[in-house]
Prior knowledge:
Elements: H1 5-12, H2 15-48, H3 50-53, E1 56-58, E2 61-62, H4 63-102
Antiparallel strand pairs: 1-2
Helix pairs in contact: 2-4
Amino acid sequence: MPATPEKYLEVQNSDEFSRLRHTLRRFIFPTTIAFILWYSLYVLLSAYARDFMAIKLVGNINVALLLGLLQFVSTFVIAWYYSKFAAEKIDPAADDIYNSIDGDRRAPSSTTEEGSVL
């Protein structure tokens, strides 16, 4: 039987849920702001510092190309770091909250022909 709406409200008002939201926000807000500033710097330099962005570094690779590629690198680094952060800090706390709601009852998602859980 699914949890009642009252149970979800109780969890939402709990200290554990507040700590989980605080932990998540402590990661997401600074990371998002840093990335937006980094991206904005790239856009502004591309628009207003064309001579700087045109400086050749190696062969035909200029500052603009390098900074553009670093946008991709920073995106992947942030995604990797978030994945690691979530696995260590967010997921265990979320699992604890889920288990407190569900009473640690989990229905099998699917079964094989022999009846074993996949």
